[in-house]
Fold each of these.
Amino acid sequence: MARYVGRRLLELVPVAFGVLLVVFIISHLTPADPVLVILGEHASPATVERLRAELRLNDPLPVQFVRYVGGVLHGDLGRSIKQNERVTVQLATRFPATFELTIAAMLIASAVGILTGVVAAARQNSWFDAVSMFAALVGFSMPIFWLGIMLILLFAWYLGWVPISGRLDYTIELTRLTNFYLLDALLTRNWAALGNAARHLILPAVTLSTVPLAIIARMTRSSLLEVLRQDYVRTARAKGLAERIVVMRHALKNAFIPVVTVIGLNVGSLLGGAILTETIFAWPGMGRLVVDAIFARDYPVVQGTVLVIALLFVVVNLLVDLSYAYLDPRIRYG
Amino acid sequence: MGNHAASLARPVEIRIAPGFYADTWRRLRRSPGAMVGLAIVGLFGTLAVLAPLVAPANPITQDLNARLLPPSWGHWLGTDDLGRDLLSRIIYGGRTSLTVGVVSISLALVVGALLGLLAGFYRGWADSVTMRTMDIMLAFPATLLAIFIVGIRGPSLNNAMLAIGVINIPIFARIVRGSVLRVRQEDFVEGARALGASQIRILGRHVLPNALAPIIVQATLGIGSAVLEAAGLSFLGLGAQAPTPEWGTMLTNTREFLRDAPWAATFPGIAILLTVVGFNLLGDGLRDALDPRLRQ
Amino acid sequence: MNLNQRVARLAWPVIIVVVSFMLAPTASVGAPMSSSWDAKACGRVGGTLVFAQGDDPDGLDPHEVTDGFSVNNVSNVFDTLVRFTADSTQVEPSLAESWTVSADNLVWTFKLRKGVKFHDGTPFNAEAVKFNFERQTVEKHPYHPRAVGYADFTFQNVKSVDVVDEYTVRWNLSAPYAPFITNQAMFATGIVSPTAVKQYGQDFFKHPVGTGPFKFVEWIQKDHVTYEANRDYFAGRPCVDRLIIRTIPDNTVRLLEMERGTVHIIIGVNPPDYDRIRRNAELVLFTGAGLNTGYVSMNTEVAPFSDRRVRQAINYAIDRSSLVNAFYGGVGIPAKNPLPPTIWGYADKVQAYEYSVDKAKKLLAEAGFANGLTTELWWPNRARPYLTQPQKIAEALQAQLGLAGIQAKLVTYDWGTYLSKLRNGEDPMAIIGWIGDNGDPDNFLYALLDKDNAVRGKAQNYAFYKSDAVHRLLIQAQRVGDQATRAQLYEQAQEIIHRDAPWAPLVHASRVSAYRKDAQNYLYHPLEITWLHRVWLSK
């Protein structure tokens, strides 16, 4: 087990290197110049040239790349060109915002999706099955930014149940230890902040959860139906066990393997959906950070963010693989 | 947006037998969902192809005196903020959106299938290098990669198609490689090889046709997702460029009127929704129709 | 909003100044409308004021930033030696109580206000002014910021600064330069605390310390910046106790927040929402004449736009009023001149090219394009104050030109790329605009239409319009002192420009903002900067 995890973690290295190389090459294919973007129109050509030299943007690309990778190996992702701040500092504040949103969305998607899928499978061809699966299809097909604005209009603006945008009311004091607001509120026993942050989280998390929710519901249903057709389930039924026990005890655990795989694979698409969700809900996360950085040609920020996202994706999928062993005892990692 | 299609697609195992496609079609016709999907896709496809004949008005002719009119006999779906007929724009917009879907997925399919074929058939280092590259690409969130490509190359429809195509390559590469690995163990391929058939011939005559079914399913689902991806890029200003009508751009550009002229933003949204639902119903139906385990 | 375009490149040798303007310490001459900040009283003290805009500041160091979102922040934290009055581009005393200028216009002496303290408790004095100047202009200065975008402009022709005594500074200029005094009111010359700069070093941009009405508390990036009232502010404490500047990217969502009462003041309003705000009894739509011009620049060096008749035809082909109604919520002014009418010297006698497809076609036929012509229309992929909805305006222009037989393909790039391509003259015809900063016609006409500024690669004269007659008038106007004479010269120049038609001026957009009724005393400044210390909350 430990050796397997070790080997998989080692595989991160070439993936990370490949990601960096690709991002680096594509970034520098562009003719646009980050220095022009930050200095504006009235800086003299001499000033522009001086800043370019200071940022060492005139070095040959391979030299820049080697220098960058060297920094990364020492945990240094460089400084943002636009804000002259360490990329690691920016990520430390932004990443938790996105991650908190993503986790919340995934929890909603998993809980509701699995429940819906199980019920739909247990009552195959019932009206619930038909309606929920069609709803899943619609949820999957909905442009996410459209849905987000609709939800804001209805639940936040018209009904006033939840805040419209943002992550925490400015009236609420919160000591930011980890920048995971819910966690910070818990750690400091700040119940006002906990409630407020949770209320802010609901709408964006629901918006972001629709696509994975739809996928998980459909996957759970079909996977469960498949398992229910298998021999050992038939045996269990033949033994006269109640259908509920058959489903819960025998079928569900096995049916989870493809579901968990899908959850893992969707972390990537969730982070992507987060870009649109964050823009609509004024959520101060990594999605907006990286999009702004792409437009400003802020190379270090783009590279740092993509690297973190890619590594996260790989780690999550490692965890998914490990969970197989739990779900199906026949699978062993040696 | 995201790896929708990849995640929705269950692994498909198919064996081609004589009369297979006729059988498949028979099964497909028995599935109401698939038929609804086919009808939707067929309808939008036909409208797109025949757009100049069926659209009631020119989609880019403006009338600044007829802005944001509600649906009426003159304009069945109302007008947008430049006074253009929404129905005509949706019909022409389907042309653009479906083109984005078809072209980008074709690109992904051709490149992905080629890579998958080579990786699966030759194995060894070619396989390792190709599939590790695919892993790296999959490690990117698809949306981010698309934004990245279009953001750097500049906003245009071609770049949007390129970006959506690129992010779908690894999905096809994986599917095809999987099929190839399975098929190349089969007796008839071993037999062909024993008879001295060339590699190319084996690939072309035996391996490729057998990998076709899952590709068809994935492509169908993928086109739906590509339409959504394009809409998301449009939201960020990276999609089709004015004045080309495209559903995502139409939706984005009219969303500020959501409260005053809801139809202007709603109809393009429904067009996207219906199309994606249609492709998914069809894709699901195709998968079931092609799935041998249901053949009992 | 980005200030990149606010300031002209003023690469000239000499200016003779408007004497009356300089000698009056309160500078109210010629500006009957101007009202001092001191005249604005707080009806009530206390409360938290929330202002929301579309993006985060790039930073909070006035010497570094160039974007409008940052400017709205730093303007409330830092003071300048002189300041713009509450509703005009005239200047009045601020950190400097008074100033004099030598007879040769080369030496400016400022008497500084006594007893002013930075937010960190250290005193403001002449040494601090000198430190601020050198921090920006001396490259080897230990605290020189990495990127200084404005100093070349704001301290143009300034050789050195002397500390005469603790509260007197003397600026030595190498050549007379009229805008010097106005530039000392610009945000970029905000006075920062030398002690804090030394303490925070590279991180000063997120620990701003000035003398202004608001003290920095915290900045949650991409979310909000919190300030608290500086109760010791020399001009009287701000009316509210706390100020929150929020970042809400989506225009619709920002308005929804204000409708719910969670935000008091917003900038960035979709024109379709103007009526909704007007109908809402709790909200006010603020509109005021703008200091900007949106225009189509035609590249006079390439065919077919090298032909004046084609350029005039384009002018006839555009229906400006319908653009204003459709895309500016009806609150802009159709443009006929490069100068906005808010600036003296505006040539009102110029007869606008009326909307006439026939005249356009006739001119095109004369120029040899009886069957129409094919070209490109470039547009910037970013909303600007003078270009509220760029894509739609581009589409509408394309359609209007099409009626006259001009088939224009739409081309766009991201903002940075767009500007550099325009500067290189790579476009045949491009939509662009300008926001003035000091209310001087020179800031528009010389910067944008003089042949001096038509140098490929760094041109602001994107039309590459090179008229010797215009050049002579503009240079003469820089050298005479009398405003009435200058105004005449500028009017003559505008008539020539009108005839030559290097541009098709489109619109002077109004400045638009919206606020809740309980936010009293709010005024969106003509420079499109938001100063908030005199705003008070009635509940």
Amino acid sequence: MGIIKVKDLIFEYIRRDEEGNVEGITTAIDDINLDIEQGDFVSVLGHNGSGKSTLAKHLNAILYPTEGTVWVDGKDTQNNEYIWDIRQTAGMVFQNPDNQIIGQVVEEDVGFGPENMGVLTKEIWERVDESLKAVGMYEFRKYSPNKLSGGQKQRVSIAGVIAMHPKCIILDEPTAMLDPKGRREVIRAVRALNDVEHITVILITHYMDEVIYSDKVYVMDKGKIALHGTPREIFSKVERLKELRLDVPQVTLLAHELKEAGIPMPDGILTKEEFAAAFDECVNRAI
Amino acid sequence: MLRDITLGQYYQTDSVIHRLDPRVKLAATIIFIISLFVFNDIAGYIVAALFLAIVIKLSKVPFKFMVKGMKAIVFLLIITVVFNLFLTPGEPVLRIWKLTITKEGIKLAAFLVIRLSFLIIGSSVMTLTTTPNQLTDGMESLMSPLKKLKVPVHEVAMMMSIALRFIPILMEETDKIMKAQMARGADFESGNVIKKAKSLVPLLVPLFISAFRRANDLAMAMEARCYRGGEHRTRMKPLHYVKRDFAAYACVALYLITGAAAGRIAETVCALL
């Protein structure tokens, strides 16, 4: 079993009217199975309302399954005894950077998690310094979070999670409220954590260009997993992605259109460099 | 415009007073305020004035910052002075129409002005030299005996520090909503008091909704980071008394004794002369 295993997960939101009678049931997650290995970089894609955020909240024991089971590091999330272990093993970063920073100084915010876990003062400081360095925010440790940009705040949030020494980080649309520069900063920090510290990353997003570095991609639609595979496999199915109302990275789309037009480009091109190489080859062959 | 407001008017500099443990400063401020109401002769107030002057000098905060806080209570001061001057019964000094100013009235009014202004200046010395964070930490630690009476001391301190953290964010949000409403023709400036109050409704409703949403998100983020109240919690910046803190306590005690004895000493000196 991997670090995170989800079996036959179903989650229903019950809508109630003013008197508390059940008005209707929305199935946000409909029979999902996942198995994520330690050290993987996994992306979950999907448009709004596809159930991806609901899934993320299950991996951290914020929501509990209606049916099925979620195991984090072998522990069942529905067992109340393990709840704090699970939240420490699987750290979570949320969408809005302002609403998840508790401290009034950057370093105090990063220390919040370890403080809650009962880590000794000396070790808290070591962890805070090391996590701020890992996301490249060490020189801002004395700043007020209100003085930072969105990308910087989000990196502080990530540092706050790393300071708890998790085995796995779940990022729930961490870049949705950021500008392109902030998005690049955050994604770079996340990739570094995965490469250097071998922390399992589960990135939930609707930006296609953020998933090309991941080991595995799951595409969600209406609470189900519609597609899964490596980024290359996913992006070779341009037509299917369009059906799921998802954009494809521009180079991939260009390659796909060229192929449709009769130029023998390969499927699933992800970067500009790949595109240039493949296109060169096509031209050479034609000559 | 709203962003310029800073609450918890901390003045950044490095001084002995700044470096003191927040608990010392809190306790000293409370003792100082109580002493102002216990002393009731001129000699006591001279000692209090000297003590305050020394502390201000040591704190390296410009005096004009202390006086800023006074502006808020000018109105209150005038009212109390007027009432005390005219309504205290006693030996009449001056009579204007039906109003009499008495000797006792003058004394009471003067004491009240001294008490209130020293109180404001004394507490601004504390807020000017202590960061809001240290202040909440100090309060939590000073009030911790109340935990035995089931007072949620840690929770109250946490609420205070979160409130302080969100003040600038909500200010910015208010600014944004105001601009958005103004762009759609809302008028916040003109009209009488009632009309102005009414015009705040379209500002306050979205602000409240957004504050609740933020609170919900924050609670979730705190839980996700293993927050479960004050128990089992360690501190990143624990409060430790050092030598200078004990020295400060000694100074405060010394001040109390001299202040209390000052009246009697003055009397004896007068008698001897």
Amino acid sequence: MSGISTPLSLTRRRRTEERAVRAVLFFFALVSVLTTLGIIYVLLQETALFFREVSFAQFFLDTRWTPLFLSKRFGIWPLVNGTVLVAANAMLVALPLGLLAAIYMSECASERVRRVLKPFLEILAGIPTVVYGYFALTFITPILRSIFPQTQIFNAASAAIAMGFMILPTVASLSEDALYAVPRSVREAAYALGATRWEVATQIVVPAALSGIAAAFILAVSRAIGETMIVAIAAGQQPKLTLNPLESIETMTAYIVQVSLGDTPHQSLAYKTIFAVGMMLFLMTLGMNVASYLLTRRFREVYE
Amino acid sequence: MTANHLLRTMTEYGVLFQPNLDRRKALGRVWEGVALLAILLGIAVLLTLLVRVFLDGLPYLRPQLFTEFPSRFPDKAGLRSALQGSIWLMVLTALLSFPLGVGAGIYLEEFAPKNALTRFIEINVANLAGVPSIIYGLLGLGLFVRGLGLGRSLLAGVLTMTLVILPVIIVSTREALRAVPASIREAALALGASRWEMVRDHVLVYGIGGILTGMILALSRAIGETAPLITIGALTYIAFDLRGPLDIFTVLPIQIFNWVSMPQAAFQRLAAAGIIVLLVVLLSMNALAIWLRNRLQQRW
């Protein structure tokens, strides 16, 4: 709308109102910037206090995380390990299923089928995470235990499966947007060369939309890493270095919940650890969100 | 007929351009079936989840669930304080986030000059939408609970939750405004309206359906959010009525989480009953949003 200039002949009262409204709305828009600054300020401040008592070496080089025990150890890696283990397994569910769903919705389904299927995926995305946690613990875990008897009651796999299905609609919908953005002419050129519908979808459209799909995948990973309630309910509270998804682990988010549920005194070291862990979590997701944003912008530039 | 001759004839009739076409088409159909299965698998999980929760929770879906406070005894436990907390939280969050989010959306879509600051704000909103909600909990803990000294009060929860859903409202407001055609704005300006008069009297009138739909969807996210409220310390065991914004509080999903974490099977079933209540509220809100969208949204 910048092409249209405001009339100059406004009365003084109207001009004052105009300016006042504009200033107020601008301030509202600034709240989002203030929020980011607030997050960075709070995290930095408490993390700095944390590192006054715990050295970087203890945080990054130790392999055990036991800040709530008598012999305190502050190695972050077990929590990162738990987080990545759950997120990676969730992606094994969400990425292939989400991409297949997106291809079907965008390239294969008739308008009528789309209209029937889409609302289900939207509901799947709208279910609160605490409900998925309940489902993981009371439904998925018993099934896993009957197949693999060595599975622990709280385990990474159960949380990861529930999380995968929670994130599936996000992957599907974002990838679908990316597939849609590929112009019709590209598809028609492929058809003209004799490709079948599935060949057009997988060999032409998907590669053309690859940066958008990659952006969707990265965003999905970032959501999986930040997801809290499912892992707090179903994945356990035992930070450890393991690649076995049937074991009980602890993620960064679950640790923050664990400490928050106890009555932790404000000055205690335990209180500060959740901000240090939060900082780590914030940096990991921030990096991925920025990467996803840049990729999305790139694929928009190509086709708009 | 030599082989070469045959090859030339086939080329002329376009046969060579369909090598194995039948096989490729069949393969395509198989894969399309697999892709459809991926969606159906997601839907099957959804239905299993709903049926499972319903069957688990049904025995506890009785009047006491709504009138009783939480208790150590599953037969006496209810959602009274959690319902009060959720309703209060939602109303106050709506009152606060509506002007802030819609205002910011209006500014970015209708007033903001195209400059570096605007771009910075936009990137910032996009990034905030991707920040894990538990980080907002840490912000609320440092800023509202400790910094402003609000303690573990409902007000601290409202402020935190407002920040969580603000990016969602801003984005949906902008989409709703973008759907209003430029001709409406040009007509208003041509008749001498100021920018704000144009927005207030014309653009908002047409965009309000989409804005309200986005608002309801944002609130339905707020009512299901658990992590940020646990982080600011919303308690799970509250056995008195909520009297004001400075009281400590609990909400539906936190109460559910608390019951899920109990070892006794009875509490798990109580949790399922709580989940039914939460899902009914959520689905009604979604239905309301869809109804509003169909009723108020202008098609151009």
Amino acid sequence: MAETIRVIGDTLPGADLNAPLLEVDDLRVEFQVRGKRVPAVRGASFTLERGRTLAVVGESGSGKSVTSQAVMGILDTPPGHITGGAVRLHGVDLLDKDEETRRTIRGNHIAIVFQDALSALNPLWSVGFQIGELFRVHRGTGRKEARRRAVELLDLVGIPDAANRVGDYPHQFSGGMRQRVMIAMALALDPEVLIADEPTTALDVTVQAQIMRLLKRIQAERNMGLILITHDLGVVADVADDVAVMYAGEVVERAGIREVFKRPAHPYTKALLRAIPRVDAVGRELEVIGGLPPNPASLPSGCPFHPRCFAAEDKCAAEVPPWLEPAENHGSRCHFAQEVYTDER
Amino acid sequence: MSELTAPVPAAERQASLWSDALRTMIRRPDVIIAGLVLLLVFTMAAFPGLFTDKDPTVCRGREAKLRPDTWFTGDHPLGTDAFGCDFAATLVHGTRPTIVLALTVIIVSVAVGLVLGIYAGYYGGWLDTLISRALDVFIVIPMLMGAILILSLFRGRVSADTLFETIAAPALALSLFGWMEFCRYTRAATLETKNLDYVVAAKCLGASDRRIMFKHILPNAIVPVTAVVPTTIGGIIVTEAALAVLGIGVQPPATSWGVLLSKGTEWAGGGYVYLFAWPLGLLVLTVFAFATFGDALRDALDPKLR
Amino acid sequence: MGRYVIRRLLQALLTLGIVLFLLHYLMALSVQIRGNPALLFFGGDRAPDPAMLEQVERLYGLDSPCYERVGDPCLLPFVDRLQGFAQGDLGTTLNGNRDVAQLLSVYIPNTLRLFVFSVITLVVVSMLLGTWAARHRGRFIDHTVRGTTILADSVPVFLILLTYVYIAAVPLTRWARGIWGSESFMGQVFRPNYNPDYPWTTIIIPGIIVGTVGLATMTRLIRASQLENLGSDFVRTARAKGLKPMRITIVHVIRNSMIPIITGVGFLFAFMLSGAVLTEGVMGIPGMGRMIFQAVQRQEGNLVIVGLTVSAFVVVFVSLVVDLLYAALDPRIRYE
């Protein structure tokens, strides 16, 4: 712990350990597509505390992956540009920092696990090299010591016979094992924030559960903040503490996981929940959300969800809904948040 | 999931691939310009009479080496060569052997490559071993080297009375060392295609081997082959010119661009640059057009890396 | 790994063996059809004394009766030839009766020098252009690079060379000598022909010109691999790991881009050999290419065959090296 504080003091002058671990505040990202500026994230806000797990849920194209890349500072610029908002780590806005500072934060304080480990690992280097690289670059560790640490990490994430497999190449591992390697790599420098971007989407269902359990276990052991990005509410039900639901580049609902499952306050969340297959609903037809996710280049007026919303009224097409809080720590961007929350709609 | 999707017949997929490619191509200005150049050259080869009314074999000694001072007008729009032949007529009439030679070589090479590649890939076993080994052997000898070998070992007096006799020897030599690339692409595509669902389905329905090979596999194999054809035609024209400069290609008094170039080099140093520059320009323009066309075709057929 | 190397070596040897036999068979066929090249020794068309002809035939190994029968593969002379090759005896030239092996010992280094400049030119220029085009994908620079390289590739090497020799070389040399003097580097580099006193300097320009062979192909390959690697997930991972841009380029991009570069050089090497024939012929560089050039013009079958054997050997060797480099660079094909 003492070491961590010292490191933060070095890389993040002004870090306040009483401030939230990670705070994303009204983040805005635009993409330059064929000369036009297309908004990908239109004001995403959420807070992550130490030792908690936040699930960011949304359809593909809702801006959740772009948000995670902007937080990491690995957005492809161009075409992507951060046009507003703040990303605060221990109260210090990372977007103000120069690239060199941000680089030292990556891996050290914030790490990420990508969806497809096969393409996210360099096929030409052994997994031991790719994990050890972090120690060698950030800590100046020697080759041998880096390798020893890599073995420890592989062991930690449950790769059998780690000492012998450390020299193997990514293609020699199975899908689940590769994702464990990815996780080992992300954990190498003991980051305080771990972002997992659809970590189980490419995996078999049984392996999915194992990886989720692994993430949960490590998060608890290390008291990390974990951001789970997923399109599947069902996957995160028993791992997440809080949920932020994203639609068309903005957070439309934010609350504790139980709250969201019990009393969603946004029609989109409600529809998502109905689309989860349930054992107690055998024989009933699964509900789907009608229509297609909106094209970010030409969003519907007012509330962007209104063309697909079961509760929409004229007001929804005309006015952008405000952020309402029908209950404490439970916010929703819907004109009728209160009614949806109390199930009157 | 895969058992629910019906295999899309090859013909249908191919049709949309080709029409997509065509649509992408005709929107590109460079392709249109290249196409116009090629059209001009092909017309020149097919109807030389459209471009000149002179007979290139009628030469008057006292009109020798007239410089083309009267640009594009007068009796000799491009001047005359060392023997007093009208140079414009020589140039235009030299187009046909060049183009016919290149087209013959490409057709023979593609046909041989396709057939060998399909048979090797489809049947496998000893046939594949044999063809693959032949491929290894021939690929070791580059086209120009192979043609040099054949033409210098079997050089003899050939009459140049007909087009066929003029180009037969170089065409044969170039085709002999031109089929390998097509064979390799076809073999790879066949290996890839032959285990696809729709081919297996056709087999189960009792289609004959030959029908499967030429009806189902060929349309797939032909895509990578087509993509390299235009560029290869350009390469053949260049190789023909090199052979002519070496003195073993098309034999004078017959003409081709290569022959004109090799004669032109002798005069270019002496101040008659136009005798070198015109065939050079025409050759480079044609090869460039083929290459541009080929490059665009490759992009259109493989849009991933545009 | 060891077994893979051995298998590839045996395959290469087999290919070379077949190539050698094929070359021999073609030559035998040529002798059988066209008559005896030993006659050339006496020059002209008049019939020489039969006893002397026989002596010359023996000298060149053409005395076997198989050369009288059209279609006979002439296996005995083939074995003789292989034995000769194994002992370093490559025969003698018909013109001037010189030892071919000795000629090769002079010619091969010259051609290698030419290739040093060609390969460097090809790799450096296409790397720069390919990278440049990839960074400006789909924009004006991308199209310009593509058009220019295709144009450069469309002009046959020997024509660039002829144009250079006839038009640019003399004024450039005169200009350079006026400033730096005729014995300086600049005074020699633009010469229109090879000068044995400056074996490196006077080979630079022809080397660069041969290096334009396949420029378009190579630039295209490099552009494609750069696009693929720059946008790849593992480069994104490397950035997420907080690596410095320099390290990302060196460790994670260049090694992955090496594979197409090696493929390209291996593939284009055969074409560069062809380019060398006319280049060396035109510039008067005493190398393998000029040897083949002259052998063709003087109708020396044996010399053509030796030249092509060397060229085949080089191509087989290069493709072997390329395959082994693949295995060394890409662990995914290591144990195949």
